[in-house]
Amino acid sequence: MHIVYAIREFEYNTTHGGVISYVTNISEIFARHGHKISIVAISDKHRGSHFWKKNITIEYINLRDTFLGRQLLTYKESHTQYSCLIRIIEKVVRSYEINRRIKKLHKTDKIDLIQYASPTAIGLFRIRAIPTIVRISQDPTLWRETEDPNYNMKSSMNRVSFEDKLELAAIKRADVVFAPSKLVAEIIEKRLGLNVSVIESPFNHNKNSFQYKNQKSILHDKNYFLYFGILSNRKAMLTIADILENVLRDYPNMYFVFAGENRELELKDGRRIRAVKYLKEKAGKQKDRVIHFNGLKRESLYPIIERADICILPSRIDNLANSFIEAMALGKIVISTYGSSAEQLITQGVNGILVKQESPRSLKNAIDFVMKMDKIKRNRIGIRAKESLQRLEPEMVYQKHLKFYLDLLKKRERPSL
Q1: What are φ and ψ of residue 15, in 5° steps?
Q2: pLDDT tens figures, 174-197
Q3: Which residues are CB-neighbours of 246 under 8 A, at least 6 positions away?
Q4: What is the C-alpha to C-alpha distance for residues 161 and 166, in angstroms, rounded to an integer?
Q5: Among 12, 92, 228, 379, which residue has the fewest nearby CB atoms (within 10 Å)?
């Protein structure tokens, strides 16, 4: 098959975004099985066709090379504020240009199937002649609303913006849709009345690529708790902040390491502050034992995960997050939250720990519980964590994706009654 993966932006060998990681992994898996892969993406650095790996080509669209793209960039330059209107125009232009490139590619090299990434409504201008799939990465409304410090899922469900409707319209235009997490699939089914399949994403990492050198001088003699991922309200930074001083005071030989993008948080009192500054503020006298790494490549991040005592990864909502999968794959005990999609892989007390959302007390109690465990019990949970990821092995995930793709192609071949 010739499969196109359409995505807003694509840079290989990057730590940015679960969608990019997914497209990288699934492209490599299908390419190894002899399928031809084209990745079509917007880029401000590259343009034209780039051979990446055997059977994989990246088709880059530089907006400066297109009429609509130049108009968009000119408009953005003349408006300093990145408004909702600009975001909507940007999504429409990106979708139009990506699909225009796909249509051109189809004329010279027949495409069997297109899979769109759901963020940024890329499938709005889908090509009806080609079977189309959308892989849903998020519910646009909830992903935005979870940054509100006073987030409530029930009330947030109804705060659908015009921008959200654009995203949902792109999903509805696809022939079939799927999501990695049951939680996101159920939310989109409820919103749109669609049948959303659940297909988990592949996971594989190569320990031979781990780079220990960069962090050796800082962490080599330290014991630490670890959070890694974007430092945001969606990732429950306020909950972690509330327990930080007590945790570090109760465990004077431990550090708390944060690895990820240092975003601005909105606090319940209306203040806006960078996450690391707020975390250190909340750590009080223990602030010197809060360590932050920013912009690490995966090869440098994995050794930090591997040496962590506990991976503390709460979240308000996720789409089967890469973070707890990566930690479980390295045999670490993960503490995450119910209702975030973590329960799809983690069984409480068996291969990890789950706590109530928005509950600093529950999170602190879980840390105390794990710290009191003997080494044998910790190792047992770590082994079960690894074993529970066998269903995410590349070959098993390939077979599930392939069946889903072939079922769509057969459906499109059937004559309509």
Answers
A1: -95, 0
A2: 999 999 999 999 999 999 999 999
A3: 364
A4: 9
A5: 379
DSSP β-bridge partners for residue 335: 312, 353
How far is the C-alpha of 313 from the C-alpha of 321, rounded, in Å? Answer: 10
Query: How far is it, in rounded angstroms, from Cα 392 to Cα 201?
Result: 7
Q: Which residues neighbour 310 within 8 Å (Cβ) at sequence distance 6 or greater?
A: 225, 226, 332, 333, 334, 335, 367, 370, 371
Rounded to the nearest 5°, which phi and psi values hold at 212? -90, -15
DSSP 39-96: EEEE-SS--EEEEEETTEEEEEE-GGGSHHHHHHHHHHHH--S--HHHHHHHHHHHHH
CB 64 within 8 A of CB 73: yes
pLDDT digits (tens, 9 = 90+) for 9-43: 998 655 456 888 899 999 999 999 999 999 999 99
Instruction: Region of 349 please: left (phi>0), alpha (psi -120 to 50) or beta.
Output: left
Dihedral angle over CA of 11, 13, 14, 20, nearest 10:
60
Strands 334-337 and 353-355: parallel
Closest C-alpha to 151, from 336, 354, 317, 321: 317
Q: pTM score, two decimals?
A: 0.90
Packing angle between helix 275-283 and helix 237-250, nearest 10 degrees?
30
Structure tokens at 151: 């987030």
Higher per-residue confidence, 241 vs 302? 241
Q: Which residues contact 70 (CB under 8 A, 6 or more apart)?
A: 63, 64
CA 266 to chain centre: 21
Beta pairing class for 48-53 and 56-61: antiparallel
* Segment 343-386, tens digit of pLDDT: 999 999 999 999 999 999 999 999 999 999 999 999 999 999 99
Provide, rounded to the nearest whole percent, the portion of the chain with pLDDT above 90.
82
Per-residue pLDDT tens over the stretch 82-106: 688 888 999 999 999 999 999 999 9
Q: What distance in Å separates the CA atoms of residue 142 and residue 21, rounded to the nearest whole number? A: 22
Neighbour tally for 36: CB within 10 Å: 16
| Average pLDDT of the residues of the chain | 92
